[in-house]
Automatic annotation (TrEMBL):
The keyword DNA-binding applies. Residues 36-134 bind DNA. InterPro entries: OmpR/PhoB-type_DNA-bd, P-loop_NTPase, Sig_transdc_resp-reg_C-effctor, WH-like_DNA-bd_sf. This is Helix-turn-helix transcriptional regulator. Signal peptide: none annotated. The lineage of its organism: Bacteria, Pseudomonadati, Pseudomonadota, Alphaproteobacteria, Hyphomicrobiales. Residues 36-134 form the OmpR/PhoB-type domain. It comes from Bradyrhizobium diversitatis.
Amino acid sequence: MTADTVITQEVSAVGPPNTLPRATQANAPAQGSAAEGFFAFGPYRLFPRQRLLLKDGNALPIGNRSLEILILLAERQGEVVGKNELIARVWPGINIEEGGLRVQVVGLRKALGDGIGGARYIKTVAGRGYCLVATTGHFESTGALARGTERGQAQRLPMPLARMVGRDNDVRKVSDLLRTTRFVTVHGPGGVGKTTAAIAVAHDQLASFQGDIHFLDLAKITEPHLLPVALASSFGLTAPSSDPNAAMLEFVRDRRMLLIFDSCEHLIDAAAALIEKILREAPEIRVLATSRETLQADGEHVYRLSGLECPSIEDEQSAERLFSHPALNLFINKVAASGHQFELTESDAQIVAKICRRLDGLALAINLAATRVPTLGLSQIVGSLETNTWLFWQGHRTALPRHQTMAASIDWSYNLLDEDEKAVLHHLSAYRESFTLDAACEAARQVLLTPFDDLLVIDKLVTKSLIEAGEGLARYRLLNSIRSYALERRDTAVSLKEPRRTSWAPLASMSPNK
């Protein structure tokens, strides 16, 4: 290890394991695993366990692969790390040429400002690999972060994904919005990754709020009146049943904190009212919400989260370039994690691109498809996507019920619709491609009992992320997963000769081979 690189270790467990570690003195000897503490070099602090890189106390956006390279170089304490070892760490189970590694290292150097103003962080050793060097061992205390976590204020903040793909720019934009506005809603369809992005934003903002960040999962709350009680409980307060808002508002009134309301759509009215009340009573509070439906509350700034970027049909790129697109990147990472050896051939790259486009870049759908590669193969997956059976592919056993299949994910949204909205959604599923607003209204009028409600119903479906509005609102479309789901619902209604205004059984309970 070079003398100018400092490793600082966590010395006591003052907070939960998912908060930032406390700091020791800059020259304290390193003990235990380096992953338990953090690395300090130049103006940077690297926290491997949190997968967090700070520059002068601010989170630095950096791609997952570049971050993985930096962590490995830091863990090896100034030693030369071979190219093959780096490739095996960053692309486990995937054969990739050294050119891909060079691209990541170049990007990492650019992010660190390597070479600017005499800074020197990553050294290339010809014919061998790379090592981490530093020009200074100066250390600045992270006591401000520690003080926030000593109060247990970040104890309910979930850990970010070990590897988040393709969302760095979204995280940066949402973080920027929170600096200029007090209330931001991350809006998008089920399975797109809203919760993942919100958790990443929360960790990005730990320093800004000195750890005073609270995460509330609304999906676990079934009744609107329990929402203020649950929020007060997350603060460690006991809310009186007569007025649960009082204790909660008193607690937040003079504090500067970030509150995260995750999955608001099923409690949309209660969530909007509570957030408005908090923002009126507590001027230093910031709120980040995630929802499939916009809250339409006072002060809300909506950030629409789309699927991960996929290459267009016209793109004729090399396999390496194709797999640099976030959707394909996520797909091959999940395939590798399943233990399947994956060759980056040109033909396979085109097939994976087709799969990801068919899945609209939805992170949940891509994860579900990628885990089927070892058993089905790429060609069979393409064929399955032409039917509705893929809606029932099972995900992680421990995932929330609504995240275990795509059918269950869409069930969550569908069950919140009224009968008019369901009928219009069924009718619009006949469109394989995008359609105009006039066409959507014409389709709606054919099934609505009150035809003049056509615009109102279309607007509701857009607001609830079941119709996607294109740029400039010129055209609309159904995501392929939602269209397949709506077709299944429509066909079931026809086969049962079921009247339109009746309740539906959950689609996830039906046989996929019906």
